[in-house]
Amino acid sequence: MTSTDQQPFLSVKDLKVHFSTEDGIVKAVDGLSFDLVKGQTLGIVGESGSGKSVTNLTILGLHDRDRTAIEGEILLDGKDLLTASERELERLRGNKMSMIFQDALASLSPYHTIGTQIGETYRKHTGCSKAEARKRAVEMLRRVGIPQPDMRVDDYPHQFSGGMRQRAMIAMALVCDPELLIADEPTTALDVTVQAQIMDLLKDLQQEFGTAIIFITHDLGVIADIADDVLVMYGGRCVERGTKKQVLGDPQHPYTLGLLNSMPSLKGSVDVPLTPIPGSPPSLLNPPSGCRFHPRCAFADKVAGNLCSSERPLLEVVEGRGSACHLTETQKQELFADFAATRHH
What we know:
single chain, seven-stranded mixed beta sheet, 2 domains
């Protein structure tokens, strides 16, 4: 998913993340690969339990090493994060890579001022004085659009609105100018106006710093606004990937089609009914054989020989575009034709 003239800043190769539990092995991520270049945003979309957040916590090294089996490779600017020591990861976290969490109120300490929390992150990585850290915190609050930052820097999280707390979280994540920013559903709890402001802020900051962004969400409307490339996850696997225009405008996997059919379109007729995907996401303790989506797929009976339930479809990627599905290209054109007709005309 990179352009031909740019080397990936982040490269994930055949990543597998399995957890040991009392009930058995949870295959949270099961063979995931993708690349991301600087200045680009990769949107990772999928239902709860698809492996989105686990993938990104693994990139950051925020997992219980005693209970987690990890295979594959995660290269950040050529450095393999899976073989890095905890000390190396601590040096990289907040400095070269950073994360914005979904719930700012739960992620910020209620006992310390906003300025202290932003400043401590900066001090840890630069060794600067408290005065310099406070100055940097004020600068970052101003940069993320918080009014009167020289006064608000001494406020506590409960004195900020939800949108302001999320801006403060973004300021903390960006205080050391990280080259990779992971945003884990950072706008979910916000109203649409504040959500739009946060999205614009991230795009502006990306343009300013050239940051590579991974944006995790279940909302395809958000993906349409911010992403350059899209990776669709289901049951711990990637089922489709491509540019935003390719994936949202011409889906090639029944799951992606199902996600799009379950949300309203701004282009099509308002009379088109929304069609939810039947059933529930698979158990990652005992996932379905073959294609993990086949028990919920409307087209599984179109494939001969019970392939969908017996054989895992390969994700064949050509120039950044691919889908893991047993349907032929001709079948997809025929079966997905109704989607194109109702959504785009």
